[in-house]
Amino acid sequence: MAVHRSGPLKQQNKAHKGGRHRGRGSAQRDGKGRLAPKTLSKKVRKDLSRVDQRHRASQLRKQKKEAVLAEKRQLGSKDGPPHQVLVVPLHNRISLPEAFQLLQDRDTGTVHLNEWGSTHSFMLLCPRLKHRWFFTSARPGDLHTVLDMAKVADTILFLLDPLEGWDSTGDYCLSCLFAQGLPTYTLAVQGISSLPPKKQIDARKKLSKAVEKRFPEDKLLLLDTQQEAGMLLRQLANQKQRHLAFRDRRAYLFAHAAEFVPSEESDLVGTLKISGYVRGQALNVNSVLHIIGHGDFQMKQVDAPVDPFPLNPRVIKSSKDSGTAMEICAADAVADMEEDLKVLMKADPDKQESLQTEVIPDPMEGEQTWPTEEELSEAHDLLKESSKVVKKVPKGTSSYQAEWILDEDGESGGEGDEYDDIEHEDFMEEESQDEGSEEEEEECETMTIGESVRDDLYDEKVDEEAEEKMLEKYKQQRLEEMFPDEVDTPRDVAARIRFQKYRGLKSFRTSPWDPKENLPRDYARIFQFQNFINTRRRIFKEIEEKEVEGAEVGWYVTLHVSEVPVSVVEHFKRGTPLIAFSLLPHEQKMSVLNMVVSRHPGNTEPVKAKEELIFHCGFRRFRASPLFSQHTAADKHKFQRFLTADTALVVTVYAPITFPPASVLLFKQNSNGMHSLIATGHLLSVDPDRMVIKRVVLSGHPFKIFTKTAVVRYMFFNREDVLWGHIKEPLGTHGHMKCSFDGKLKSQDTVLMNLYKRVFPKWTYDPYVPEPVPWVKSAISSTLPEVDME
């Protein structure tokens, strides 16, 4: 039987390859048991059955719910700190004493009153709800006090007016609180029952519509009766807590009592004993303590007295009056505190964080030997050789004519052939004779255009000097917008001296610039991280995983703070709240902080760079003079002379190290003493190597053009300045120069030269911020719009 055999021309098809569509078994056989770590971790999820996946998801949900419930139960319980509520009235018609009177219900629980100056506060203990509250309020006109107390408050209770909601002052306060970061908040309306019954429903509808702009999907509670006050307390106790990142990683304390013990050497400095509840994280006595508005200090020891506000106080049963029972309870608590006072821990000098904020610079550290004469002569000869350019020119061409021949074309423009040397020199002589009168006429015209038209009818209360300064700022800002970075070359000072710190760059984006070059002396005083991101990650990881030895959250402690000036306790006695934050490692040291900010729409006044501003950065409050620069991803960032309104800018200042995230608020002190909000943002980084480059643009005008070459004037005004730079050749003695370009030049074009130098902020850091003038509605109504209730 014959068998068919394929010949050499048989078609050979490719074998089938499974590729990524092959089964799991074939993939395992090909891999021979070798699997990547990522594949191993993913395999566990794939091997789970659908029932196991559902069970795993339900377990995760249950864990999250338990964590939220545990946080709710701890806050305000007998083992946790009291639930601190900051009451903020948003309208001048709101009566704060009436609201406090409704919340101080003797039937609800025990009330402990306390008054510090004009700051009213009280402690409410409610055993029936197993909760204790600490209600406090700030002075209505003290903005910085409201912001400082909002940093440590668990809940903010906003009181609204039934007709308008909030006035311009309240709107300004809300803008600042939203920019800083709001904790848990609740809205309550006071006085709606005083309206006629027919208007109550319409008022609530209009108020809800107006509130939606700032508080979408938030319910309004009433606060006119004892029953409504009880419902409000239950709402406060059952709310889910919102977290502020800058305070969750640090221990902080709101002072309930303070005592000053002067030192033996001086009565102006001594030991300050601060008593309060530990919040946030566990408090270590070896860490540095920051008192807002006063600076950084060290602790000597931490005492653990008896809690003066226990949830279940001991009350004598024979007492008939509840007020008498409360007094006996408070007296017993104070007696127990004196008897049972015990030292929790003392500072260890070997482990205690140092208060060193600056590096002591060594003046001999950067010394280097001066080069010898031989080295200078060799460098000069090398520079001459490298500056020589070889060109192909026709025979008989002079060196002057060779200067005008371009490398690209090998010849100059069409008109250049007719431009004779003798004619050029005669023309330059005539031009130099007529130059002086033309410059004087042009200078006179420039001064006439820049002169502002003033109105002679001024009000008597207007400060003419302040008005003139503000007008000058507006003119400078407008000129900066029209002609960015453009400056006039001075006539009285040589340009080579005036711009000796500047340099030219071929490309602002790609040209190299060493960040360690020509640093100021202030940079020898600051600290710098080798890798700031890794340090921040390591510190935050230690906070989450490592247990800190010290006072736990919820404990009532007394901190012994050493070397504190007496002014701190004087401010506390006048009613200013005393708030202390425990610093993370390195946060007491000075460095360069970069913050991203955007202009606040309620303020339109020009803000110039290096003006003194007031900063709220996280938990700190200080004064400094910042730089403004563009927010880009490059290694060099262009300096901005004014704080612009359309784009976000980066603010650079000398300040203590703060680990982000942290909110940033910028205030400016006006001539009347008020502080106006000008910008809001967040902390970007702590990086002294971030280069802020200032650009200066010098302009000149071409008056003799030869296609791609021209004679330029008015950029410089003497021959020496032209010879100082890398310009081919000066013409005459009045600053005229010969320039070549890579394209055709027109008569209406302007010749620009960009010069750059690195700038640094001023060292004006001051932790003390003066108290502002209280808010005045008429003073801020011009910059903040009224709330539209319709």
TrEMBL record:
Residue ranges, compositional bias (Basic and acidic residues): 46-55, 65-76
GO-annotated cellular components: nucleolus; preribosome, small subunit precursor
One Gene Ontology biological process: maturation of SSU-rRNA from tricistronic rRNA transcript (SSU-rRNA, 5.8S rRNA, LSU-rRNA)
Location of this chain's protein in the cell: Nucleus, Nucleolus
Similarity section: Belongs to the TRAFAC class translation factor GTPase superfamily. Bms1-like GTPase family. TSR1 subfamily.
Entry function: Required during maturation of the 40S ribosomal subunit in the nucleolus.
PANTHER family: PRE-RRNA-PROCESSING PROTEIN TSR1 HOMOLOG, RIBOSOME BIOGENESIS PROTEIN
Protein name: Pre-rRNA-processing protein TSR1 homolog
Organism: Bos mutus grunniens
Lineage: Eukaryota, Metazoa, Chordata, Craniata, Vertebrata
This protein's encoding gene: TSR1
